[in-house]
Amino acid sequence: MQFKENVVIVTGSSRGIGKAIASAFAREGASVVVSGRNKENLKNVVDEISKSAGNVLAVEADVAKPDDAKKLIDQTLEAFGRIDVLVNNAGITRDNLLLRLSEDDWDTVLDTNLKGAFNCIKASTKPMMKQRSGVIINITSVVGQTGNAGQTNYSASKAGMIGLTKSVAKELASRSIRVNAVAPGFIETDMTAELPEKAREELISSIPLAKLGNVENVADLVLFLSSPKAEYITGQVVNVDGGMVM
User: Fold this and answer.
1) Which residue, among 67, 42, 68, has the nearest Cα to 56 in the 3D structure?
2) Lower Cβ count inside 10 Å, N or C end of the chain?
3) Residue 20 confidence (pLDDT)
4) Total domain count for the chain?
5) Does residue 243 belong to any structural domain of this protein?
6) What does DSSP assign to residue 209?
7) Minimal CA–CA distance to 65: which of 124, 108, 19?
């Protein structure tokens, strides 16, 4: 129960990696705020977490919109009075080759993935600075480091999150606020479950540990970086990718 006194916000937590992170914090005693755009999915997450853990609040929000990001932070403060950890996990894909990529596909992905993280960080910074404590974790991706054909927009957004992480870490370190990024590789999710068997085998062959990761692998790393055990770590990008990028 190492996060018993903590309040944690996880964006994009209605499913997949975000849901796993929110659930892991709740099991460790945190008061958790889950957020996303799908009201029904959020309700299901709240019901699931509530069965085995403590306080959980759902806030429907599109973090690409500054007003929604501010609403998320404001409702968290109204309910719990503080913010100890912000996990920027909200993200979408609109994959296509560059020549076929529309301006809307570019803008939508950058607005959600990168601007969404910026909006939430900006809205949460003042309360964290008043506390003189806080942790921000940005969920980026290995493709933000390597690039990926057919994902120009997604890769750019995730690379931008790395620059955002390092810059904000430098700005907020004097207030004892730590900022790090977690870069997952290929993780077992609904999306990877739909891969044809041949594509899946080719994917696994590119991973030194010869297997896909699971959402709990990512959640465990986020919890470590948010804990006092990581008190001397800030401005870093930590991969959880089975050795894909080294």
Assistant:
1) 42
2) C
3) 96
4) 1
5) no
6) T
7) 108
Report how far residue 132's alpha carbon sits from residue 5's, in angstroms, rounded to the nearest whole number: 16
- pTM for the model stands at 0.95
Q: How far is CA 231 from CA 60, 104, 178, in A?
A: 31, 40, 8
What DSSP state is assigned to residue 114?
Answer: I
Domain hosting residue 226, numbered range: 7-237
Query: Count of CB atoms within 10 A of residue 39's CB?
Result: 11
Any domain includes 244: no
Residue 246 lies in a domain: no
| Phi, psi (rounded to 5 degrees) for 18 | -60, -40
Q: Tell me: the pLDDT tens digits for 151-195?
A: 999 999 999 999 999 999 999 999 999 999 999 999 998 767 777
**Which residues are designated catalytic?**
154
Strand partners, 87: 10, 137
Cα 39 to its chain centre, rounded Å, is 19
Element (H, E) at 183: strand 177-184
Residue 111 lies in a domain: yes
Distance of CA 61 to the CA centre of its chain: 15
CATH code at 125? 3.40.50.720
Contact partners, residue 108, CB within 8 Å, separation at least 6? 92, 94
Judge whether residue 32 has pLDDT over 90: yes
171-177's contacts with Cβ under 8 Å and 24+ in sequence apart are 172/125, 172/128, 172/129, 172/134, 172/136, 173/234, 173/235, 175/128, 175/129, 175/132, 175/133, 175/134, 176/132, 176/133, 176/134, 177/125, 177/128, 177/129, 177/133, 177/134, 177/135, 177/136
Q: Are strands 237-240 and 177-184 parallel, antiparallel or unpaired?
A: parallel
